[in-house]
Amino acid sequence: MHQIKNHYQSLTIILSVLLLAACGSPSKRWAPIASTVGKSSSANRSTLTLPQANSGRGAYYKDDGPGEDIPGGLELTLDAEPKVEPYSVAGSRPYVVFGKKYIPMTDERPFTQRGIGSWYGKKFHGQRTSSGELYDMYKMTAAHPTLPIPSYARITNVNNGRQVIVRVNDRGPFHSSRIIDLSYTAALKLGYLQKGSSELLLERLLPVDIEKMAENKKSRVTETVASASSYVNAELATPVSLESPIIASAPDSTEGFYLQFGAFGLRANAEATFNRLQNQLTQLPALEIVQQGALYRLFSGPFSTQGDAFNAVELALNAGLPKPIIVQR
Asked: Is the pLDDT reported for residue 50 higher than 70?
């Protein structure tokens, strides 16, 4: 009985961990904005070697760059959690910068954009954004000339396939060569801090996408609770020796290079694209839909070498399809 009681307690802990993983919200570990600039801490200082601002090797603003007291573990920061919010009245007004007029979006039109994105940091850290909030370079935010404020976007680094979700709460960049400025942490997670800029794919998350993502998250929580409860009941019926640790594992994907043809907030959209591509890409390996968090990614592969993957990209382009992203798993 003592073993069963201890085993039940262990299973309860497992259930709690599963629920926390399913319901996680952005970490609260960041220090207040005023305390993250202008101080020195060797323990938290970035280990990245970044180009100096205005050196010609980085694409962030003159006199800008990383802070002097960088929190640790920023690469583990969770993406912004999308939610439907009313648009800012002030952030929705047309405005003029450098003689060019910008008209912010106020409707629910789909919007995608591909181009060079940069990041901005200490020069603007703690200053007021277009949403009225203070800019925190260590949160998952972004500045865009015309997307609604606030709104949410999925950003993909075309060069490495990494993706993040950010909250758009500021205006900029106002350079014809750039489409978006991300926060320091968002650029860190996308892997282009040292370079200063990278080719990005921006996909606006509409309210309908956000609502569906919330439904998917709620379903995952329910499934996690049901699955964990079944596990607890089954294990209590057949007690396990305390000397035999419980090991949870998931099947690994076949390693190799894959083509990613999209990441969708709605499974129905992933399935529609899957059906369309199946008829157009008969020469490529089988397609598969893989759910990762709130997204449904569409892959083809694996390819044993990067060269084979590049050849497959050419086949996709010749078929008139948008250029897929090569990812390694």
From this structure: no
pTM greater than 0.90: no
CATH class held by domain 33-205: mainly beta
Domain ranges of the chain: 1-26+217-248, 33-205, 257-328
**Domain 257-328 is found in CATH 3.30.70.1070:** yes
Cα–Cα distance, 120 to 186 (Å, whole number) = 10
For residue 32, give Cα distances in angstroms to 71, 120, 137.
11, 18, 11
Share of the chain residues as helix, strand and coil, in percent rounded to the nearest 5: 30, 20, 50
CA distance 72 to 284: 42
- Other beta carbons less than 10 A from residue 305's beta carbon: 10
The pLDDT, as a whole number, for residue 47 is 45
Cα distance between residue 31 and residue 48, in whole Å:
21
